[in-house]
Amino acid sequence: MSTFQDECTGSEAWHGSLQIRDKRSSSADPESLILAEVERLMAEYTRGINPNLPRKSKGKTYYVVWKGRKCGIFTSWPQCMAQTSKFSGAQCTWTFQEAEGKLRDELIKIVRLEASRSHPRSIAETGDVQRPVASSPALPHDGTPDRDRPASIPRHSPSIPALETAAVDGPTDDEGGRPETAGAEGQERQPLHIPGDPPLCPEQQNAIDLAMQGHNLFITGSGGCGKSVLVRALHRMFNARYQATNKTVHLLAPTGQASINIGGRTTYNYAGWTPEDARKPLYGDGSIVTKARGQRIFNRYRHTAVLIIDEISMVENQFFERLSYVMSAIRKDPKPFGGVQIIVVGDFCQLPPVKPFKHCLHCGKEMSKLNDQWACPEGHGHAFQAGDKWAFEAPEWKRCNFKCVRLTKIHRQSDEAFIKVLQTCRLGQHLDDADANLLLAHHAEAENGTELKSTREQVNQRNLEEFVKITGRVHEYKAADACTLARGERRQPLDRLDEHRYPRELQLKVDTPVILLANVDLDRGLCNGRQGVVVGFVSSDTIQEPRPPSLRNYEDDDDGYRAATERYNRIVDYLESAWSNKDMFPKVRFANGEKKVIGPDCAVTGYGDQSPYSYLSQTQIPLTQGWAMTIHKSQSLSLDRVVVDLSRIFEHGQAYVALSRARSLSGLKVVGADASGLRRIFQVDDAVRAFMTSIDSNDTEDQPADAKAARSRPVE
């Protein structure tokens, strides 16, 4: 843990920032000078500090001071007190990386203040070489800071899979070198280094340069090429640029686990939607545009300067379209996303969107599927084929006029032969005997590794095999299913409960590895996909009843309020039953060191073609046993030891995603396929292949053309 001491004064804390005054006469970008000076100070103030000290049983591990007799990170309270005595104000954090990031953020403020005192013109005014297209006023920045780096959890007997550590996809040494990019007036500019992340390599720095010039970017590359590191670097750079203004920068990903990995929020969370909002029409009464006029979402859209969307392969065509249309309507700007700068990041050779084309973009009604085509029952739009599900097939994609940046240097794995085979698998190319033998017959050190399987059925079977090996009392939790019918509705499609993600019956013991199935507390990193271990059971009466939803938070969104009320009522019912039966709820220690008693959660699904909707709900403890997990759940993770079962692959990109989760060849074991099977498994979706060919045929400076001609936008 680190303690942040603020409100401190002293002479030494300021001496470094004065150096920027000598540079103000230069015609170089002032913001670049500020960031360069901050990096110099960071190197000075963190020199000699071990970033991997074990956590102390008592007291803090790190103390950070950015205003005091001496700035820096310290490893004992007496050292910190010597710099901060007689000053008040303290905050806490968990990791060296977060302390380092906090120190850097505060130094940016200090150096910018010093620069503005010596140069009265605003930093924001002078620092923009080329501004993004967004021009609306903004609220103060509300981006989420980088999450804690998860720490490994001790393994228990019998075999408990090794838990994930946060993916750091950048280089681990200086082999990437530093680009010789000329700055303004010929000044040499060093690549950005984000504290806690490796230095950026030249191709990553090129992406930074294009982004800072205001271009919309599509950043792609295979697993382990440093996309996540680059995303965090972009986020920091944009935050620094807009810190002196009122504009906001948002970092998004389609899943909870992926958003935590990059320190962002989910796409649905940013949009202010639930999955049920796809049932709403695009425009008119009760539409998602009407919902977006509520103050909170309205202000968020109006004041966004930059959207960075990671894992773009999992963002569906119509979600991409819908968000762009709504933002354009709210911002009163016909350009894509209302003129906001858009940066999308990901690899379309990985997993596609799940269950695309469920609802019509225009009217919200359920799409009809016939002969592998989806169409609106009201005749809106056109029929979609399976290959249309990708975001690059959305007409808004082409209108974004993306510049493509391809990252080619692999940082996650260091074995060149393994990297070559992964690239072959990614592109669906022929695996020769040597390639297949490398994957199947190498010496693997994957004992107790997480097992990745294609289907939930396989995962459940494997978890059961391991669960019976653990001794101790079994705690069993049964899901509570319910159906609330809207007035006039009589049918109860209970078969849809099978679509819910929670297990009908959940059995747990102490030492059971588990995977969290809901976003319980994003601020603490407790998101869908987070791994942990059950360390005990606590009386259910320690769980507090949730707060009922407030109608004030659902302005112009009656359906959202009804769904939230349904969820609240079902959780309260479950808790009252647990209290009366004196049930025990599991206490889990998660891979990032957080501990939490996990109470019930309720998944609510609406059905019907018009409001008010009927609701199906399933209430359960949002955990599942975690010796094995689905390949879909693993996307965005990096695993030290992993056993990949390829026996029932059913999706393009699935096998490649599974293999590329491994940090090393030695930590990977492949089962469920022989050499001939491997050659059949690795295939690329036809639409993706055509798209990749189209961007390969263009220069990096050209936009990647989509595979379809642009279609007209819906009219409000």
UniProtKB/TrEMBL annotation:
Residues annotated as domain AAA+ ATPase? 213-450
Q: Which Gene3D superfamilies match?
A: P-loop containing nucleotide triphosphate hydrolases, Ribonuclease H1, N-terminal domain
Q: Which cofactor does it need?
A: Mg(2+)
Q: Which SUPFAM superfamilies match?
A: L9 N-domain-like, P-loop containing nucleoside triphosphate hydrolases
According to its UniProt entry, the protein's GO biological process terms are: DNA recombination; DNA repair; telomere maintenance
Q: From the UniProt annotation, give the residues forming the signal peptide.
A: none
EC number(s) recorded for this UniProt protein: 5.6.2.3
Catalytic activity reported: ATP + H2O = ADP + phosphate + H(+)
Question: Which CDD domains does the entry mention?
Answer: DEXSc_Pif1_like, SF1_C_RecD
Keyword Aminoacyl-tRNA synthetase recorded:
no
GO molecular function annotation: 5'-3' DNA helicase activity; ATP binding; hydrolase activity
Record InterPro entries: AAA+_ATPase, DNA_helicase_pif1-like_DEAD, P-loop_NTPase, Pif1-like_2B_dom, PIF1_helicase, Ribosomal_bL9/RNase_H1_N, RNase_H1_N, RNase_H1_N_sf
Keywords tagged on the record: ATP-binding, DNA damage, DNA recombination, DNA repair, DNA-binding, Helicase, Hydrolase, Isomerase, Nucleotide-binding
The segments labelled Disordered in the record are 119-204, 695-716
Stated family: Belongs to the helicase family.
Name of the protein this chain belongs to:
ATP-dependent DNA helicase
